DNA sequence: GCGACAG
DNA sequence: ATCTTGTCGC
């Protein structure tokens, strides 16, 4: 059974793009990049995702906890509220995080590593959704995105497991990682308290069958379902 | 100035 | 993100 809670807007949540960028420039200093992160296949791995109904100004987030070894669902929670920020490239976190925080708070078990649908340090100011969520919660986080955003990369080898650097100019901000033979890669970046190697290892452990991590797939399905039930 | 741009 | 049917393939 899934419990849906109501989203409280964190105190001081920015309303303007200018303020939001200032918040990123301040919080980015707290990102921890010198920890390896939890080893793949142990403990919990949690996927978070968000669905919208802009017509009704409604946002629903889902958090799904998996046992990292079996990939079985251990717990799940959802949270619904008003959309707190418009979609602006580079400021996605301000639109998604309040609902995600509420869903994580509603979980009955520790989340372990949190897998986000989007980017971590692969970001214009090196502070994407996954890093922001990590700093706010203290949890280890990674970002697994479906698109290369503004970054560049060389096509990785055709086999699952092949990878190539995701580049912001000459700086490596993440990795294009093939999770399925001959299928478009995903774009992995560190969020908080995790290394890039660990992030990629987790991503491969979570993709035994599909291109996207099992965590993301489960969270995506849950928030869409909860949005329909909230709309109905 | 123009275009591109995680979800 | 979201709007949306059928269809090709394992």
UniProtKB/TrEMBL annotation:
Residues marked Interaction with target DNA (site): 87
Gene3D superfamilies per record: archaeoglobus fulgidus dsm 4304 superfamily
Top-rank taxon, per record: Bacteria
Entry keyword annotation includes Cytoplasm: yes
Binding site for Mg(2+): 49, 117
Any Gene Ontology biological process: DNA repair
Major localisation: cytoplasm
Location of the protein in the cell: Cytoplasm
Recorded family membership: Belongs to the endonuclease V family.
Protein name: Endonuclease V
Gene name, Swiss-Prot/TrEMBL: nfi
């Amino acid at each position: 059974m899934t419990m849906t809670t109501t989203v409280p807007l964190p105190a001081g949540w920015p309303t303007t793009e200018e303020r939001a960028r200032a918040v990123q420039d301040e919080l980015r200093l707290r990102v921890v990049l010198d920890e390896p992160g939890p080893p793949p296949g142990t403990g919990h791995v949690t996927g978070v995702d968000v669905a919208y109904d802009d017509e009704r100004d409604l946002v629903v987030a889902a958090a799904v906890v998996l046992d990292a070894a079996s990939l079985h669902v251990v717990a799940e929670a959802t949270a619904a509220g008003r959309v707190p920020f418009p979609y602006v490239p580079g400021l996605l976190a301000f639109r998604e995080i309040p609902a995600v925080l509420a869903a994580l708070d509603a979980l009955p078990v520790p989340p372990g590593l949190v897998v986000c649908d989007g980017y971590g340090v692969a970001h214009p100011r090196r502070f994407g959704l996954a890093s922001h969520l990590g700093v706010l919660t203290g949890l280890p986080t990674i970002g697994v995105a479906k698109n290369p955003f503004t970054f560049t990369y060389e096509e990785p080898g055709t086999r699952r497991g092949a990878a190539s650097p995701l580049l912001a100019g000459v700086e490596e901000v993440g990795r294009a990682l093939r999770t399925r033979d001959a299928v478009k890669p995903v774009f992995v970046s560190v969020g908080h308290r995790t290394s890039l190697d660990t992030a990629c290892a987790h991503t491969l452990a979570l993709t035994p069958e599909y291109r996207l991590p099992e965590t993301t797939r489960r969270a995506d399905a849950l928030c869409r379902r909860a949005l329909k039930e909230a709309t109905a």
